[in-house]
């Protein structure tokens, strides 16, 4: 499945670029409560677990369904304007009509907005029964949140906003560091959107993105389906440090679309699904594994590899070509000789890259 951004009629003015303190806060809370989804944040999450007040830690986990894989829509910007303060973004949550807040909360508790609607969940017994049943099947935590929503939605919203403020205070140092990196990347993103156009700028956000020309659209490989006509639905693009490796696309009727994309460290690589698959496939072959073992230790020519492995030079050359196509070897030419060596970094990262591709 995929989320498709239709670009017909869209211009750079159809997009806004900016930071979102709320989206970054809830991305951090997700990385903390589900560190298995965030290989790069494991150590941070363990350290935070030790430093947080025990009561705050308990409350964050009790509310975690709202910022799980399906994040509540109001936990990313409700307005198509970036660079607003956390206070302003939380005020937007408070200003939501109660029925709309309950509907969006119900979708997050349930884990998606497909299936039966929840637009009347505060008054319709059938919708209430459906939400309770689904929540109970998922977890006790979700069932407890569903019960709180249906019995006291006003108190639930008040408690949620208080928790988000408390969490922001507790994570202030980490969020400030993330904010500095986010703000440093915004000018380049704005220039790319203006100079290169939406298609190229959007496909550059994530390795899973692809541009298709007829009709012009950008496709993000996701676990749900959605179509966003950007010409009529304004789109906010906001970078994230704690969201890595996820690319989040939120598109709820009545609100702007929001793309929260992962920022990578300067110079780092983010292989797409096809690259990870290719590397795993290439290294499955026992003969290529033998070659990789040899050139992990020292650079060797195809002739020397053939002598050591018992293969012919053409056989070795074909295996080296597959390894090179997968980005797993480097080649150093000295005169007429080519010396091959295993590219250790992508090999070392295969496990982490696979997790990143699975959770993107």
UniProtKB/TrEMBL annotation:
PANTHER family listed in its UniProt record: TRANSCRIPTIONAL REGULATOR, ARSR FAMILY, TRANSCRIPTIONAL REPRESSOR SDPR
GO molecular function annotation: DNA binding
InterPro entries in the cross-refs: ArsR-like_HTH, DUF5937, HTH_ArsR_DNA-bd_dom, HTH_CRP, HTH_MetalResp_TranReg, WH-like_DNA-bd_sf, WH_DNA-bd_sf
Stated name of the protein: DNA-binding transcriptional ArsR family regulator
N-terminal signal peptide: 1-16
Pfam families: DUF5937, HTH_20
Domain of life of the source: Bacteria
Ranges for domain HTH arsR-type: 268-360
NCBIfam families, per database record: HTH_metalloreg
Keywords: DNA-binding, Signal, Transcription, Transcription regulation
SUPFAM superfamilies for the chain: Winged helix' DNA-binding domain (SSF46785)
């Amino acid at each position: 499945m995929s989320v498709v951004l239709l670009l017909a009629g869209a211009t750079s003015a159809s997009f806004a670029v900016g930071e979102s303190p709320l989206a970054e806060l809830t991305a951090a809370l997700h990385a903390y409560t589900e560190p298995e989804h965030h290989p790069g944040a494991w150590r941070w999450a363990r350290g935070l677990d030790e430093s947080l007040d025990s009561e705050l830690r308990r409350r964050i986990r009790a509310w975690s369904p709202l910022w799980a894989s399906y994040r509540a829509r109001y936990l990313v910007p409700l307005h198509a304007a970036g660079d607003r303060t956390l206070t302003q973004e939380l005020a937007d949550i408070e200003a939501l009509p109660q029925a709309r807040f309950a509907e969006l909360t119900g979708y997050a508790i349930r884990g998606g907005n497909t299936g039966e609607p929840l637009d009347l969940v505060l008054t319709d017994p059938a919708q209430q029964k459906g939400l309770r049943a689904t929540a109970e099947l998922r977890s006790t935590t979700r069932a407890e949140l569903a019960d709180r929503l249906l019995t006291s939605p006003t108190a639930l919203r008040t408690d949620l906003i208080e928790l988000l403020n408390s969490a922001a205070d507790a994570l202030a140092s980490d969020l400030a560091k993330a904010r500095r990196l986010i703000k440093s990347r915004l000018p380049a993103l704005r220039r790319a959107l203006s100079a290169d156009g939406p298609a190229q700028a959007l496909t550059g956000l994530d390795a899973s993105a692809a541009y298709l020309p007829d009709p012009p659209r950008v496709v993000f490989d996701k676990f749900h389906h959605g179509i966003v006509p950007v010409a009529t639905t304004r789109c906010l693009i906001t970078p994230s440090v704690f969201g890595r490796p996820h690319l989040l696309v939120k598109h709820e009727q009545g609100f702007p679309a929001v793309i929260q994309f992962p920022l990578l460290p300067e110079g780092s690589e983010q292989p797409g699904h096809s690259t990870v698959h290719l590397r795993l496939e290439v290294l499955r072959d026992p003969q290529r594994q033998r070659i990789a073992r040899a050139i992990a230790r020292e650079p060797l020519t195809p002739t020397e590899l053939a002598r050591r492995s018992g293969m012919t030079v053409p056989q070795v050359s074909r295996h080296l070509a597959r390894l090179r196509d997968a980005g797993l070897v480097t080649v150093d030419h000295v005169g007429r000789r080519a010396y091959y060596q295993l590219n250790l970094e992508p090999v070392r990262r295969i496990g982490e890259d696979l997790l990143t591709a699975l959770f993107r």
